[in-house]
Amino acid sequence: MQERSFTAQMLSGLAKGARKGREQALPVALFAMFALGVYAFMAIADEMAEGEVREMDRTLFLMMREPGNPTQPLGPPWVQEMALEITAIGGYSLIILTLAAVVGLFLVTRRYGPALYAVLSVGSGALLSSTLKGYFDRPRPDLVDHLDAVHTASFPSGHALVTTVAYLTLAALVIQFFEDRRVRTYVLVVAVFVAGIVGISRVYLGVHWPSDVAAGWALGAAWAALSWLVMHVLRRWRASSG
Questions:
Q1: Exposure winner among 55, 108, 150, 242, fewest CB in 10 A?
Q2: Are 154 and 208 in contact (CB under 8 A)?
């Protein structure tokens, strides 16, 4: 019995140690993700401002068009319809509705901290996108007709940036309720996949250059990581002071 008790205590100690190690590694990983995202965005912005990505943008842009007929996107008409439906996932209307539903759930269950975190993270990400668009004021692609309505500047892609922030933020909230690493990985993969296909749809529909989308992904991931890091630090501070 004593041997079993000792074994149980040892396993419990190892589990606690592993959990503590993961908690200590998370801020480092998040800061690294933030720094890498900001660096990637600044590098793309610098290359874009100097015109050094123009040829690559054009090449990648035309890869989604019929050879010899750039006015026609690849694939049958239903692919265009699907691209419009996918791009709507990154539209402000759907993101606001999704965010409102999640925040409402947190408010009903009296989880006010996560609710505030979700609103501030996504809201500040949208504000950042709008500010940067006004600053860079890059024209939209003019090689083909746009297959989706657009009213703002091109760089960075607001759909790519805000979708990345929104779905990574929601993923960060969801994985708190699961200890299983496979579930956590699945949730994060789904969030990254959604942001990825939304960004690709913007190029396919002819409303963004590939560099716009890449910059949106990079800064969106950086902003989500920064928001997650701030939430983690505040939670640790609150736990230690309580």
A1: 242
A2: yes
